[in-house]
Amino acid sequence: MRPLLVLALSAAPAFAQGGFDPAPVSDCLAAEGGRDCIGLAARACMEGEGSQTTLGMNQCYADERDLWDGRLNDAFGSAMQTLPPVRAEALREMQRAWIGYRDAACAYDAARYDGGSLAGTVRLQCQMQLTAEQALRLQASLAEDG
User: Fold this and answer.
1) Can you list the pairs that 109-115 forms with residues at least 24 positions away whose Cβ atoms lie under 8 Å?
2) CB atoms within 10 A of CB 30
3) Out of 80, 89, 124, 144, which residue is the most buried by the measure of CB atoms under 10 Å away?
4) How far are the Cα atoms of 9, 30, 70 from residue 51, in angstroms, in the given order?
């Protein structure tokens, strides 16, 4: 079993060579690009060395999804601290329902590929897209309240 672990660990640096840089999204958002910013960092990541494989593409999409998820969590946390209790509870319920929707919608998109290797890529791209849209929606809502 140890040789497999060594092989897996030795493959990690080669995979990570493309690298993920959040700057394309951050720069776009700073220029008020909104929805046009979604996917910029993942696309730039996929142009990097070692990222043209399915595994590489999946990592790029997952990394950008996580970037947007962090923004979403930050906005949610801020909202929960500043909204009146009735609205905070409504937000909590909406977010729970949205997570279920996102997961079901992305599973549906992935099902088109019947468990093939592209299914995972499609699921991650969908999660990235919907998470980004939700983050932007919540951030805009907070700005309106601010």
Assistant:
1) none
2) 10
3) 124
4) 17, 26, 23
pTM for this model (two decimals): 0.85
* Residue 12 is assigned to a structural domain of this protein: no
* pLDDT per position as a tens digit, 5-37: 333 333 333 333 458 999 999 999 999 999 999
Q: Each residue of 42-52: pLDDT tens digit?
A: 999 999 887 88
- Say which CATH number the domain at 135 has: 1.20.1270
Q: How many domains does the chain have?
A: 1
| Pair of tokens at residue 83 | 């909204």
Q: Is residue 56 a contact partner of residue 15, using CB atoms and an 8 Å limit?
A: yes
Is 98 among the domain residues?
A: yes
In 3D space, the residue among 100, 98, 91 whose CA is nearest the CA of residue 133 turns out to be 98
Domain hosting residue 131, numbered range = 18-145
Identify which of 86, 92, 89 has the alpha carbon closest to the alpha carbon of residue 73: 92
DSSP 10: H
123 vs 91, 114, 134, 143, CA distance in Å?
A: 25, 12, 16, 30
